[in-house]
Amino acid sequence: MGFSLNYALSKVWYGSFSHFDHTISTHAISTRLGGESKSPYLSLNLGLHTGDDLNVVQQNRKLFCQAVGVDYNKVVTAEQIHGANVVAVGAQHAGKGVSEFATAIKGTDALITNEPDLSLMLFFADCVPVLILDPIRKAIGLSHAGWKGTVAKIAQKTILAMQSEYGTRPEDCLVGIAPSIGPCCYEVDSQVTNQFKEQFVNWADILQPYQSKWKLNLWLANQQQLSEIGVKNQNIIISEVCTACNKDLFFSYRAEQGITGRIAAAISLKS
User: Fold this and answer.
1) pLDDT value of residue 10
2) How far apart are CA 167 and CA 165, in angstroms?
3) Which stretches of the chain score pLDDT less than 50?
4) Where are the domains of the chain?
5) DSSP secondary structure letter of residue 177
6) Cα separation of 141 and 170, whole Å?
7) Do residues 261 and 38 lie in contact, with contact meaning Cβ atoms separated by under 8 Å?
8) What letter would DSSP give residue 183?
């Protein structure tokens, strides 16, 4: 089991997790390859809020959806405010935010559904994409976990919301922690570390002293919070791909000084 990059149509490369059941779900994590955007957004920028040309980003989103087998008109996206709010969506939300940022689901950083063919899609440039599949109850979740979402345990809250809405059991869930900034590159100060020390019993595993600062392991922090509620460690796959180390393949807000595009993570249930 693991994470791999795959080549699709129109020079689009995307990542996927081998332990997700492809007979009941579709998922993909985009790279920055295969799009139409110009520098500094080269080239498959999928973020509408980045300063890139709106029409080009819309075209990029259509290219990505076509390449990975997602219905563009049945995508639902969120505003993403670095919070920990989780929203359950259904067929009535299809198309929200896919073409216009203003129509995205407001004030949320995680989406869940049990609606077939509805694709959850969120956008990233170092923050952690957490993809969740419940193959028993046929439900999915997708979380945007930056440091603020991670310390607020948004991934954990996403599965608990699936439990409340759909009867999901954490021990049944399959989880993919997709490319994002790694502990090799993510330096933080005491303002951040103090919050992790308050929220994580095993904080010493996710924080390592580095010169006058600390290095933060968001991957392990998300794994830990999922283990706390009963997700099996063998069901959690971490891609171990750092976006800051691999800015030729992915967008990195930190490595590119904030002027860059966004990759997408998408997941849906097959009908």
Assistant:
1) 76
2) 6
3) none
4) 3-181+240-269
5) E
6) 12
7) no
8) T
